[in-house]
Amino acid sequence: MALHSTIVMPYLTHYGTKEQQEKYLPPMTSGACIGSIGMTEPDAGSDLQGIRTNAKKDGTDWIINGSKIYITNGWLTDCCVVVAKTGDAKRAAHGVSLFLVDADTPGFHKGRKLQKLGLKGQDTAELFFEDVRVPASAL
């Protein structure tokens, strides 16, 4: 659970809103909620400037579409921090945002659990987002 405890929870602690911290940190601390980070993509790898997953504003909500691969804790995740393009920035490094997406959100699908050589205690999986609607508070 190294990724869960040393990356996901600190993201929430340092960058999350008070509402997000109150909702997610207690269950993450108790182990009732497993976190993951959806960054890596099939065509971009870990180069965040090349991601294709996008989020479009729809009223006060955001609609997320795209896919992620090689996501640690992806199969077990209850809440994923998803990296998505949110604007038409002049530079590829701009216009990228993070969203908290609960695993039971309609349109969020877990793909296959990927086979790997080591660290079998942490699963690795594909994640798919098909018209996933999240509130503005997920940003």
Could you please describe the fold and organization of this structure?
The protein is α+β, with helices and mostly antiparallel strands and 139 residues long. Helices cover 19% and strands 38% of the residues. It has helices at 2-15, 18-30; strands at residues 35-38, 54-58, 61-72, 79-85, 96-102, 108-113, 124-135. The strands form 2 sheets. It has a 4-stranded antiparallel β-sheet, with no helix packed on it. A 3-stranded mixed β-sheet has the order 1-4-5, covered by helices on one side. Strand 2 (54-58) and strand 3 (61-72) form a beta hairpin. Helix 1 runs antiparallel to helix 2 (18-30). The longest helix is centred in the first third of the chain and has 14 residues, at 2-15. It is globular and about 40 Å long.
